[in-house]
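User: Predict the full complex structure for these chains.
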Amino acid sequence: MTGMPLLSLAIWIPILGGLLVLATGSDRNAPLARSLALAVSVVGFAVTLPLYALFDTGSSAMQFVEYAPWIPRFNVNYHLGVDGISVLFVLLNSFITVMVVIAGWQVIQDKVAQYMAAFLIMSGLMNGIFSALDGVLFYVFFEASLIPLYLIIGIWGGPNRVYAAFKFFLYTLVGSLLMLVAILYLFMEAGGSFSILQWHQVPLGMTAQSLIFWAFLIAFAVKVPMWPVHTWLPDAHVEAPTGGSVVLAAIALKLGAYGFIRFSMPIVPDAAAAFAPMMIALSLIAVVYIGFVALVQTDMKKLIAYSSIAHMGFVTLGFFMFNALGVEGALVQMISHGFVSGAMFLCVGVLYDRMHSRNIADYGGVVKTMPKFAAFFMLFAMANAGLPGTSGFVGEFMVILAAVDFNFWIAAIAATTLILGAAYTLWMYKRVVFGKVANEHVAQLEDIGAREFAVLGFLALCVLAMGVWPYPFTEVMHASVNELLRHVAVSKL
Amino acid sequence: MNFVVPDFYPAAAEIFVAIMALVTMLATTFLKRIGRSLAYVLAQATLIGAAFITIYTMDGHVTLTFSNMFIADLMGDLLKLLIYFAVAIGLLYGRAYLADRNMDRPEYFLLALLMTLGMMVMVTSNHMLTLYMGLEMMSLSLYAMVAFDRESARSTEAAMKYFVLGALASGLLLYGMSMIYGATGSLEFSGIAQAIYHQAANKTVLLFGLVFIMAGLAFKLGVVPFHMWVPDVYQGAPTAVTLMIAAAPKLAAFAISMRLLVFGLFELAEQWQSMLMFLAVASIVLGNLAAIAQTNIKRMLAYSGIAHIGFMLLGLLSGVVDGDRHFALNAYSSAMFYAVSYVLMTLAAFGMVILLSRAGFEAENIEDFRGLNQRSPWFAAMMMIVMFSMAGIPFFIGFFAKFSVLQAVVAAGYIWLAIVAVLMSVIGAFYYLRVVKVMYFDEPIDSAPIHAPADVRVMLSANGLAVAVLGLLPQGLMSLCAYALIASL
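Assistant: Here is the predicted structure of the two-chain assembly.
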């Protein structure tokens, strides 16, 4: 089994499957497109399972490595591999894709084949980003993934979708093109190599490190998104269809954070250390300020979008304290946020499909008509607020612990998230679900069907499992995180 | 003085095209009834035949003939093959369009052949006079083609503008050539290079000459600030002719830039590089900014073309750094790769404009692409590929073109230039995205299905797919460009 190019399969099965769905499915034959997409996504997820099962947790080296020359003219190689940091994201991504395909089953009636194909292709590209070990390969996947998301927001999005799609695309493009210049510079400095692992070893002066750090920072900060370049996210989330929001929150936001840990920290460790206070400050602003912003939102999706920014602030905070607990906590938080925010957006999607409104004020008393849904929503809301026993708690707790070790006041500020998160999530939950039945539309709501139950159920299992027993997740990343920190501690000057 | 019969063999393809052009002229005069299809078939056959001859006579060596006025080398052969290809595709895409407008007269195909011949002479020139002769042959054919729609005031105006400004540019070029001749005593590129190398030339005269040559080249390439004719001519000319102007001549212009600047004036590289730097930055900035404001897709593509040529110049200007010629080959081959990629994309883009036009209807505005995804998902996807490729988004060839040029720029140490270029690409992405938006996010106004002959559909699909496939596997074309330059320099 190890002989199989598992990572290539994880990348190309969804992409080729997506093209197949495009080729066979037309609007007249939507059921075929749906079933085919489901089959492809399930197979795509299945091939990633051995990645976890066969993963050697004792090693920090890249595993499942594939290597072939791609563009020898510039020494660009098709070099794939995962370590303990990236392997979980490949699984998460493939899993979320299955959920998204099922979630779009009935809701999407227009251009079904194109919808499914866009998500499948994007899933393959995302797997490519997480497993690329060549700078150009990474960049190519990173940029190409903009195309499907642009189309998803623009074609199936809400009333202001065009604005949101452009904003999303151009914001991200500015960052990533500057990263391209940095990549080309590193290519020269590394003596004509695009290998990321080789870049980790290249000595660089402080000026060069700072400039590269900034180039990467702009690219990744936009993706995360960090305050103050976060403004595209609420727009994109609000306008995107449910599936788009799920993928955006669960996977796309992780790309930025992953970039920090794969590029910024190991390639320019001295600059990363020098700018760490700034990064921590920005992260705390995201946690506190954006937490308050979330509190006053009237639109459910916008509220969850802001809460995502706050949660991602925790992730960057965890990274830039440079200790193992913090980094592992941040990684756990990333995965947990993948499940929880995805689930939250799906919950809003469930309501939106029935009421065509995301306004909190239009709801009230949903529990009376949709008890099963309310139970799920409750669980995810609690996880979003960081309730112990759910996955949301684990990462936040680890990061706060690490922060106490690092600096008490940073920990104190970061811990306000426990209050703020609970405040905005539960207040929203209360207004939507409890109270008197607000209007006759709510009174006529139907509870979730089997398909929705299955999707939310799977996610609920993940959230609970990770909250109760996070060891299988941390075990995988342990060796790689330690190795990373050991590497980062050594100056390159 | 005794006359030596020159070696005709290296020029076999040029001679073949010249003869076939005359044959076409005669045959269509005498066979009036089938003249139109005959001219088309003969033109395509000529291009295919020329391709075979070029491949057959290609040997990878540098051969001079006609008293060193003519050079046959691998770079020239490769560019000629690409020119045949671009012209053939242009004729194929344009034929039905021209027929609908009663413009598919034999003269059109004859002019196309003469234009091709002109470009071939440009590509293989080793002498100022041959270069100029080829340039004029191409330009005069193009002027006539732009004015081919005799009833249209706009296309006549475009032709006049093109002609007057083109003549001015030729004048500038010629004046510059005469100064170089005055300074070096040679019209032959290798002679010029030697004279400068031995410092036998008066530097002041030489630099004056260089400035005029650069101005003339800039006119022909259509870069800022010598770009004024480009948008008007692109818009005014019949779309089939716009396609001809936008594609193959860019390859020929690249070739003469190489011949003049690298083969002839390489010793002055630092001087012309700084001029090119100004031209390139101005073109990238102005081209991208002006393209945003356009509602006419031909004008938009014109401005985007200006920006693309600016990008190509970035490759040409990164060859020599502080006297170090280490990077020259890498830089020039990246520029060549850029030119080839641009031609491939531009063919597909104008091919799509032609595809959407039909008898009595010009698909000229970006709005005409509205809802194309619902009318024809396949061709909408092709256009999307081309637009993303032009914006420089992977996995398409346009990305690797930008990538290789930027790599050369960064290698030369011009990091600021790379940053300016990428920031302008973001602005450029906006108007390409707008075309995608119009096709995918908007509802169609015009729900007529797309009518096009099968050959156009097949070729256009192949063209769009080539943009994608060469983006997945760019190695072959990239190393071909590099190899051609190694063998020629």
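Strands of chain B lie at 63-65, 70-72.
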